[in-house]
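ok so for the tutorial part 2 we go from a plain amino acid sequence to predicted structure tokens. step 1 is just haveing the sequence, like this:
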Amino acid sequence: MALEQDIADLVQASNNLTGVVDNKIQGIDQRVAQAEGQFQQWLDTRHVGFSLTDTLLDHSDSYISIPPRFSTLEEAEAFSFSAAEDYAPQDGEGAVNYYADIYSKTPGVTNWYSEPSPTQFTGRKSVYANISVGTAPHPSPKPVNRIAVLMNSIGAHHKWITTGDPTPNYAQPRTFFNKSINANREIKGQSYGVTNYDDLIALHENETAGFPVGFSTVRVINLGPYPIQVKGFWLIHHGYQKEA
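step 2 — the prediction. this is what the tokens look like for a chain of 244 residues:
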């Protein structure tokens, strides 16, 4: 009887050990599956690998000077779109423009109608600009300026307005990237001989963007209070290399 009990105890111990090992293996399998899922999620959203860059403006072009629409920061901060003249603002004589248009070289939408269609774009984009602010070289404090950035849509009811019927609502600007911040946003900068000591302003980094298929033009409106010079503007479509 003692021998039979010992054998039974050994069998039970073996079963218990097998259960512990099985549970450990299942736990490892779950963690591996979770890690694989996290890796795939990262792979599907990462923007490293390659990018398609639309250079709308760079130093091979002449820089664009835009005088300020408003003379004080308080006026510029308080601005919101409400009338037709807000979209292409000029002085009273129509001799001075407070805005400038720059033109895309590549489509804003990578996938729409054509086939074979691209498969390696993530749908995320970045935008950098080289803009001088004011007339002084790197002053302290930094000059604070306000701009609006719009995009057009060819074929829409209204090129610069999102209203979806023939009567425009002037309080509905077609903001760049489809982001409300671009209706009136802050930038800071300096101007040392306009083109000296250049650097970049990050307008958007690795963000999803709502571009219309009819996009072709970016409009920069200088709300003020400083003059600005637009010297560069880059729209980057992020992609990643994956196997077919």
